[in-house]
Amino acid sequence: MRHALIWGGIGSLILTAGLLLATAKHNPVGAAVAGGVPSILAQLPSWLQDCLLLLIIFAFFSCGSSIQGAGSRLAFSYARDGALPGSGWISRVNERFKTPVNALLMGAVITVLFVVLVYINPGTNYHIWFVTYPAHVNALVALVSFGVSGIYLSFLLTVIGAIVARARGWRPEGAFQLGKWSWPVLIVAAGYLGAMFLNVVYPSGLSSARGLFNLDWITLFIIFIIAVVGAAYLLIGRPDRNVERRLRGTREAPEAPPVTTV
């Protein structure tokens, strides 16, 4: 794991440094938006372009497969505790391969369906209350924009959950613990993630340099819809009761008798 982090960090630094060094000196944001990464790579020697393209392809494949695996793993874990609709089907484990095959299939199918969004490209502006979806902006761009802010939001909520749990007396188990540094690390992490999340989702307008990250109010609007749907399911379906029953059953499960040898 340590070597994976080290070499992953070195590869990311090389790729980022190459793209930054190849960016146009005058109006770099405009040049990047107009021509994208290919216009930046065109400034480099051909052999270096090939190396960076290989890194980009590997990064896309690695990120895509890891996100798909992580989504399937989360779906299985939530379904195992009865916290999702259709939990029995989603949490089913293949008898031969011992893998949550239905959760993996669901993650693959949803991924393919989202890819189809590339064919949605409205020709005119669409107004939803005070939110305007701009014309000629591919729906996949909106999904990627939400994904950028969603990553920061998911980690921020995890840190907030850890802060609340520690304030209620929870102490982590395992060999790796931060000890007295836990509170400083949690506070700094929450501050950084909160600042980055606000920086990404702040509706500064479509003409601003950050317009590709938030599409004005679009990203916040999607987050609001997801929050409303999640809150409605929590209040109507009450999946928290299923989770509590499972946790209670786990805590009260009798321990296995000791194995004796003759």
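(ticket continues) Second input and output from the same batch:
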Amino acid sequence: MTQSMTGFARRSVTTGEMTITIELRSVNSRFLDLHIRCPESLRAFEQPWRRKIGEQIHRGKVELHIKLDDQTDNRLSEIDSEGLSRLHKMLDQVARVFPDATAPDQLSILAAPGVLSSAVIDEEALGQSVAKALDQALSQLVISRREEGAALEAVVLERVATMRELLDRLKANLPILREQQQQRILHRLAQIDVEPDAKRLEEELVYSAQKSDVEEELDRLDAHLNAIGKALQGSAPCGRRLDFLMQELNREANTLSSKATALSTTETAVEFKVLIEQMREQIQNIE
């Protein structure tokens, strides 16, 4: 299925007192370019995240932003009885040595190391919760990219259909165009009132027909249009292949224009180039 390289997804999960929010953004890039912003406490899980994203996204600049909201930060920590007891003994010792020293107030005691206990974060459980949120966000991102990819595919196929109509019309008119070219040559000879050598005239007509023959270019254009349809129908990323096919189409359109012997052929070649450029703009967004 055709995927775009642009998309956005956001998911949040809550585990205990922790809310995990994940945002995924992707834009165009020649390769997979992954940037991760997360708390340092989660850096140990970065490689599994990269593998997980790489399994579903093959091209694009992807930004992964992980935010942790710890609700325990808004609550008072509990007093560690053992730590407070140790501090009390140390203060008694200090008071015996320095009886005139000012005793610390309650806030100073609470600020002393070891008096207040902080909540212990279960890193393994946190990593599993982040992985769950990432799975949800990644699924949403892929859906977003596929929806836009379907719209891009429709635009490209519409241009392909238009090109094929022009191509079929040009193929049907080739015999008429050849006949018109020969008639122009004979008409010019008649205007200068010269009796040409029959054999030489035949050779010149054959040479002129070969020089302006565009059947090979039309066949290649037809093959490239078929290749575009097959690439879009495949399951593998097709952006690079489509970009290459645009180059080949443009090359054949230029050759067709240079060989044109009639205004209608030149106009068709110009239409081809316009349609190719329109497709190229859309293909730049396809994975």
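Agent notes: The chain has three domains: 7-73+123-146, 78-117, 147-283. Residues 170 and 265 are 7 Å apart (CA to CA). Closing as not reproducible unless the customer responds.
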